[in-house]
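User: hey, got a sec? need Timeless N-terminal domain-containing protein folded
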Amino acid sequence: MNCELLATCSALGYLEGDSYHKETDCLESVKDLIRYLRHEDDTRDVRQQLGDSQIVQNDLLPIIVQYRQDKALFDACIRLMVNLTQPAVLCFGKIPDDPVFRHHFMQVTSHLQAYKEAFASEKVFGILSETLYNLLQLDWEQRQEEDNLLIERILLLVRNMLHVPANPCEEKKVDDDASIHDRVLWAIHMSGFDDLVKFLASAQSEQQWSMHVLEIISLMFRDQTPEVLVSAGHARSAEEKQRDSQELEALRQKEHAEKRSRTLQRGTRHSHFGGSFVVQGLRAIGEKDVIYHRNLNNFKNYTHDQGKAVRRVPKRNRQAHDLKEKRRSALNVRLFLREFCIDFLENCYNRLMYLVK
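Assistant: Yep! Here you go:
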């Protein structure tokens, strides 16, 4: 670790049991770390070294929990954590193709996953919720510029934490088991932060936070499917269980039949000349039928687009893709998300989407 960074981290203070003892120049040290991050190189060396030292888990989170009355220190710690927790794609601009930069990208992502696990705490989200609630109580003429900045940073911090992807190697969770993302969602619910999100989505005076609120809500439902949320809380009947078992048996029989047909179609002697076939009823470019030059086993996958170059879509015109991996969260999380979804659709959706559009 860089000597200057090590000295700055040591000047923050130290954690002893559950209590944190800050040094006299703790605030100046936090500001120095913000300054170091501003001048890091393309490999994000400062960010990686701070992640290796576990500064968020051992210093910044205990500071905001224990010294939340120190407004200047609290604001500086939130500002530093927003910078440290920003997505790796934003740090590097894209997922790097170069192996060296890809390694640095993976290192930053692993540090973010460790931060997310530390943030899955009701105490931390309780502090953030209470601070945000007190700021939202101020009228617009009483609210200072630094108050608006703190509101935005708290929303960005929560957005960054929800954005962190799961680690498939470490998090081998089955359905109905609480993942780290589920624990973060449960901490959001128990601290009352979800009620503040709904208030921000529906209040006319808080429409400037609409995009941040939409991002947070979208990431909250990232691993969910509508069918799973709708069925949450409803006991499965004997008929549904029997229907599921019949569907599974039908799929097993179908897979067995396909495997058997593939075995029968496979010839014992390999032929380098598969032959040419005329496909009747399927027109080529002219008036004649299509001539197929490959093995007949693969004909069911035939399209006229085979062999054509894929048209490249500009980045700004590409549609957002949902994550393919879907898993069923713990029951209490699904019930909370279901109630949140009902309240949001009834009271907030129309207004929020109108503002965002």
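Quick note: The beta strands are 13-16, 19-22, 277-283, 289-292. Let me know if you need anything else on Timeless N-terminal domain-containing protein.
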